[in-house]
Structure formats: C-alpha cells, structure tokens
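Extended Data, panel c. Modelled sequence:
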Amino acid sequence: MKLTTKGRYAVSALADIAASGGAGPVALSDVALRQGISLSYLEQLFAKLRKAGLVSSARGVSGGYQLTAPASDIRVADIVAAVDEEIRTTACAPGSLTGCQGTSARCLTHDLWDELGRQIEIFLNAVTLDDILEKRIAGMAAVNAPKMERIEAAE
C-alpha cells in the first residue's frame, strides 16, 4: 500500500492555501515554491481539485486559488479522492471474483489488509485541513488503539 505523490502533494498544497487564512487567492507559483512541488504538477492536480469543487480560481495579476469551504469542512479523504488517488491495501480489487493470489482464493492475511484499508479511510475522513493547521493530528490514531492491558495479558 502506498499513498503516492498525487495525494500527498494535493493535501500539502491545500493546507498551504488554508494557512493563508482566506485572505484572497493564492498563486500556485507561491505554493510550489513553499512546498517544493513542481508548478506544472500542481497545475494538473488543481485542475482535478477545482473539478471536485474543493478550490475555485481567479484570473489576473492577483489571481490564484482559494478554498471553496472553510478548512474545518474539507476532509483529507475528499482531497485524496479528488486527485483520483486510490489507497489499496490488498492485491485483489474490491468485489473481484479473483482473490489476492490470482485465483478464487484469498490469502490468509486478506482480512488484515482489508481492515487496514478501512481504518485508513476512517482516519482520513476524520481529519480536516483545520486539524492539520492546528496540529491536532498527533495522537488521533490512538482513539481506536487496543488497551495495553489486553496486549500484556495475551503475552
């Protein structure tokens, strides 16, 4: 499983724009410079983000992009989905008759990786751009963490 640069760069770029505080459109060239992302790559991503309704654009000297909703209303999962990023944790396609091993059988660990994919989806749906800006991410995954007593008792 791998989150590619499309998803990571799209989230970073929108967090950069959100950090501007909505003071008007932000030039992609400025985002590219601050985030260390190719401008041409950002232009491709922002075409998809605009089509998904996450950003709007303004032309002209003071043009650029701005968020279409408050940072607290934009979830990371929506950003990742907008740039056609699919996070797959299994080798088989969801709903496919062909299993993980290229046959009709699924691998022994299929349920583990499938559930991991669900947990990633739940987590990304729970995180907003505002959470990123306000540094509320650290510790969020601990919400569903197993209790240490159960782990120690099992040993």
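Residues 135 and 149 are 29 Å apart (CA to CA). This feature is highlighted in the accompanying rendering.
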